[in-house]
Design a protein that fits this description.
This protein has about 425 residues and is α/β, with parallel strands linked by helices. Helices cover about 30% and strands about 10% of the residues.
Length: about 425
């Protein structure tokens, strides 16, 4: 029997999440039937969110390079089935100098992930990271490091979240390792193929605005139909994800609503996200007049290059805000500051700031809840911060509001994580069944 009173063969495989952040990977693995034992991260605000949403797991706050934190991680993870995590890895360029990634002191957190896997020797592990690791040509280095001299069979796959029912394009490089003693290879992870088939392009008929288009053949037609179908959750558009929250306004301070205050879900994805108790994290940032005027001049799916010339002046109403670029006009660096979502397409990759993208029909930024929806965090997932005020070890600057956006903007989309976890679980369950026979 395990500590929940269940026969070992009836409980889900156990997981510890290193560099967990708010818990996107953990949530996806939990949704796939794994049991989360613990998560750990240096950021106390992210760990407050983690503790709130994983009450049956232990949240360990601190730097894993510290002996006290490392010892606790080893104690909690000593017999887990799977280790997951996304360690920061900064020194990609060092490969040009023939220096191994794992030896660079800036990659000490990556080295700790490899070390924990080596010490615990779980049945499997999953490590995710940014596509830049692949672009800098270090993928094979990482696979070699994670193989640990032949202990693990390691695969690496570049995945896009939009291929797995997430209403956002977000690429992650995912390494899956399976212990050689299991006698099986890491499972393949295959998405819908939608990102290679469907695109957002300028409308050649109206010469204003954007429309959906096909990159290739009949397969693309079928995927476009799935994207347009509100009953289909395999490919999801922005409006299917957040259309029921259109009523929010810039400057909204009411952070929570009961479920009966919301309109009926208009898509299967909205039903999937809904929580019977209600919804939180609905606050919306205020907006200055210049930004509002520009957004009203940008079509859905567009950016600052769609603005009429008089709206491209750096300051429109005389209000001085943000850094001046030394000219009287907007510049290329403003491209990411005025992007409007398109309701019929998935979102661009979110970053850690509230102005990463703007709403498709309302002149406003998104709420944290809408960030969550576009990342596939369900409404039951509440984003919070450590209640202690002031500077804390590991706390990022700029306050609680920015922290909430940053936590979700940095996260792995749970539905993407669930797809990886589901493939891995089939391997582990089949291996366990084979041993029992």
């Amino acid at each position: 029997m395990d500590d929940l009173g269940l026969p070992v063969e009836q409980r889900g495989p156990t997981v510890i999440d290193l560099f967990s952040g708010a818990g996107g990977l953990s949530l996806g693995f939990e949704q796939a039937g794994f049991r989360i034992v613990a998560g750990t991260d240096y950021d106390p605000d992210a760990m407050a969110t983690y503790a709130r949403n994983f009450p049956n797991a232990i949240a360990v706050t601190g730097d894993i390079r510290n002996d006290s934190v490392k010892d606790r991680v080893f104690a909690l993870g000593s017999d887990v089935d799977v280790i997951i995590g996304g360690p920061p890895c900064q020194a990609f360029s060092q490969v040009r100098n023939h220096s191994r990634l794992i030896d660079d002191p800036r990659n000490s957190l990556y080295r700790e992930f490899v070390r924990v896997v080596d010490m615990v020797e779980p049945r499997a592990f999953v490590m995710e990271n940014v596509p830049g690791m692949d672009q800098m040509g270090v993928r094979e280095q990482v696979r070699s490091d994670l193989a640990l001299g032949g202990k693990y069979i390691v695969s690496s796959t570049l995945l896009d979240a939009a291929e797995f029912g997430v209403p956002q394009t977000r690429k992650r490089l995912v390494f899956v390792g399976v212990h050689r003693d299991l006698g099986v290879a890491p499972p393949p992870i295959e998405g819908s193929g939608a990102t290679a088939a469907v695109a957002l392009m300028p409308d050649s008929v109206s010469h204003r605005g954007y429309r959906l288009g096909l990159r290739n053949d009949v397969v693309a037609e079928e995927l476009l139909d799935r994207l347009r179908d509100p009953k289909d959750t395999s490919v999801v558009s922005v409006e299917q994800a957040i259309g029921d929250l259109n009523f929010l306004e810039a400057g909204n301070k009411q952070g929570a609503l009961r479920s009966d205050a919301l309109v009926r879900p208009a898509s299967a994805y909205q039903r999937l996200m809904r929580n019977r108790r209600g919804v939180s994290n609905l606050e919306v940032p205020r907006m200055n007049v210049d930004t509002r005027l520009r957004l009203e001049g940008i079509p859905a799916g567009g950016n600052y290059r769609d603005l009429a010339e008089h709206l491209q002046r750096r300051y429109l109403t005389g209000q001085k805000w943000g850094p001046s670029n030394g000219t009287e006009m907007l510049s290329r660096k403003h491209y990411y500051a005025y992007r409007r979502l398109h309701p019929a397409f998935w979102a661009w990759t979110l970053n850690t700031k509230a102005d990463a993208v703007y709403h498709y029909s309302e002149p406003r930024a998104l709420s944290v809840r809408e960030f969550c929806r576009l990342q596939s965090f369900p409404d039951a997932f509440e984003v919070t911060t450590d209640p202690r005020r002031g500077e804390l070890e590991g706390r990022q600057p700029n306050g609680a509001t920015h922290s909430r956006y940053r936590q979700i903007g940095n996260a792995v989309p749970p539905l993407l994580a669930a797809a990886v976890a589901g493939s891995l679980k089939r391997v582990l369950v089949n291996e366990r069944s084979r041993i029992q026979v």
